[in-house]
Specification:
Layout (H helix, E strand, L loop, with lengths): L3 E6 L13 E5 L4 E4 L5 H7 L7 E5 L5 H4 L2 H10 L6 E5 L3 H12 L12 E5 L6 E3 L2 E7 L9 E7 L2 E5 L8 H6 L4 E5 L13 H11 L4 E4 L3 H5 L7 E2 L5 E3 L2
Parallel strand pairs: 3-4, 4-5, 5-6, 10-11, 11-12, 12-13
Antiparallel strand pairs: 1-2, 1-14, 2-3, 7-8, 8-9, 9-10
Length: 246
């Protein structure tokens, strides 16, 4: 199976450097699955030629708007383009309530509309594997305050493993999540400045060998990291980047 990982969005919450908010697409198997779906993700899908109705599932690392805020728009787009296939949304406990509340704030009445397709919600429990649209997903608790548990995600699909840190300060659970992965997509919000609940590049570099992934790609970069990304020892994601995971 030819599997690809597409960075539909590689930016932070504030669109530093004009980047779209976090959204990764796993493609090549029987279904397209998104890891996170920030508020700008529907625009990014259409910019990079990915049909939103091809998305079978969205797996969320945590419930901040730059990581889940695109889900209401994805659902509404499906409604107005006569989508019929189900959409699965998986993530931390409380995700259905948070998403439906967001829909009501943005488009009152939209969460209660009868649609041609089902939206099914799956709550992920820490370190308990779940199968989501053919992808085996395991959530690992990380350190990021978002009003609900925050996770790093390990996705096993088509014989390949992709791990994604989500947003977090350094925590040992990242070692367990990333071990043996074909690709570890890791936040590097700043270059070396320590911020609570976020990773900096210097910390990632210090622990890189322990992570044990075959490939490490930096994402969710803020302005200070973007200014110095040429100094990084690892690949830096950009919007539209496609990685082959053969």
């Amino acid at each position: 199976m030819s599997l690809t990982l597409t960075f539909l969005g590689s930016g932070d919450a504030f669109g530093s450097d004009g980047r779209f908010q976090t959204c990764l697409a796993l493609r090549g198997g029987p279904a397209t699955v998104l890891l996170d779906c920030g508020a700008s993700s529907l625009i990014a899908m259409k910019r990079f030629g990915m049909a939103p109705n091809d998305v079978a599932a969205v797996v969320l690392s945590h419930l901040h708007g730059d990581h889940f805020g695109g889900v209401p728009f994805l659902v509404l787009d499906g409604q107005f383009t006569r989508r019929t296939s189900p959409l699965v949304v998986a993530g931390p406990p409380g995700l259905r309530e948070r998403i439906e509340r967001a829909m009501e704030v943005l488009f009152p009445g939209s969460s209660r509309v009868e649609r041609r397709f089902a939206v099914d919600y799956v709550e992920l429990a820490e370190r308990v594997p779940a199968t989501v649209a053919g992808v085996r997903v395991t959530a690992f608790a990380v350190e990021h305050a978002s009003g609900a548990p925050a996770y790093a995600l390990r996705a096993e699909y088509g014989g390949r493993t992709v791990t994604y840190s989500g947003d977090t300060e350094w925590t040992e659970s990242l070692v367990d999540a990333a071990r043996g992965a074909d690709c570890f997509v890791c936040e590097a919000y700043t270059f070396d400045r320590k911020l609570r609940f976020h990773l900096d590049y210097a910390t990632v570099r210090t622990h890189a060998a322990r992570l044990g992934a075959r490939r490490l790609v930096l994402t969710h970069m803020g302005s200070s990291m973007l200014e110095r990304r040429g100094e990084a020892d690892f690949e830096c994601a950009s919007d539209g980047l496609v990685l082959a995971l053969d």
